[in-house]
Amino acid sequence: MVKIIAEIGINHNGSIDLCKHMIDLAKIAGADYVKIQKRTPDLCVPEHQKSVIRDTPWGKMTYIEYKHKVEFSEEQIKELVDYSKSKGIEFFASVWDIESAKLMAKYTNIAKIASASITDLELCRVSRKLFDHLIISTGMSTEEEIDTCINVCNPDVIMHTNSTYPCPVEELNLRYIEHLKRKWPDKEIGYSGHEFGLVTTFAAVALGASWVERHITLDRTMWGSDQSSSIEPSGLIKLVKGIRDIQKSMEYLPGNRILFEKENVKRQSLRK
Fold first, then answer.
1. What's the pTM?
2. Are 7 and 213 spatial neighbours (Cβ–Cβ below 8 Å)?
3. Angle at the Cα of 187 (from 5 to 176), degrees rounded to 5?
4. What Cα–Cα distance (Å) separates residue 248 from each residue in 17, 73, 119, 189, 206?
């Protein structure tokens, strides 16, 4: 069964109510997990960016002020975990620093290391110790950087991705999924998509991705850097149904020609 992650990311814009609406959407659509990103802004925002003035929905403010505004507190994280449990869907996060990893480990046993962080080997090591199930994404990384991360933290899932938002389809390099499956046969190989549309994500499943992640939003016109490359409610519903249909259509072993009962009825009527 392909595991489907509905990635809220930062599309909640710091609103716990909006985040809950997207948790509801993920559950209704049939996703297995819902995920946000968790950062400690003082650790994650580069010094030269902290004082840069940004236009935000709350007016002009420094970048560090903005990043604090869109982060959930530990109390809010617990509320979201409990809310997700009440809806029957598992909530977790991409952790961007050790402090955030330690916080999330209080409430969930699964975490993801984002593409931007797989060269942070200390974060990778600590996260491996903290979580029973660890996922990494491979965007913006060389083969050597990916190998080093895998050897350091022994992830359970390796997600192929291109970190361009949105990614042109000609740069998706989906056949890399096949390469990862051959190179790391003891790992689950997944796909995290940032492209427009669903067809190429379906192709990733056909190529063998056993985990799929797509960013979700209630409205792509909302404020936020990731909204435009996310899929809206109808898109998520179509994504989940499409993946499940692909699985059903491919559940028999290669090379097995099967004469199904309904086809045999047609055979009897058309062949003499």
1. 0.95
2. yes
3. 75
4. 35, 41, 37, 19, 11
Query: CA of 80: how far to CAs of 18, 106, 107, in Å?
Result: 11, 13, 10
Placement of tokens 């997700």 in the chain: 84
Q: Among 157, 14, 158, 38, which Cα is nearest to 97's?
A: 38
State residue 253's pLDDT score: 82
Between these two residues, 258 and 113, which has the higher pLDDT value?
Answer: 113
Domain residue spans in the chain?
A: 3-270
* 20: amino acid identity, one letter: K
CB atoms within 10 A of CB 210: 17
What are 220's two structure tokens? Answer: 């792509």
Q: In the structure encoding, which two tokens stand for residue 254, read together?
A: 């290669």
Per-residue confidence (pLDDT) for residue 227, from 0 to 100: 87
Cα 111 from Cα 175, distance rounded (Å): 26
Number of Cβ within 10 Å of residue 246's Cβ equals 16
Q: Is the pLDDT of residue 171 over 90?
A: yes
Fold of domain 3-270: TIM Barrel (3.20.20)
Q: Up-side HSE of residue 162: CA atoms within 13 Å toward CB?
A: 20
Residues in the chain: 272
DSSP 8-state class, residue 106:
T
Q: Is the bond preceding 166 in cis, omega lying within 30 degrees of 0?
A: yes
Comparing 2-11, 107-116, 205-214, 244-253, the range with the smallest average pLDDT is 244-253
Tokens representing 213 are 């992640």
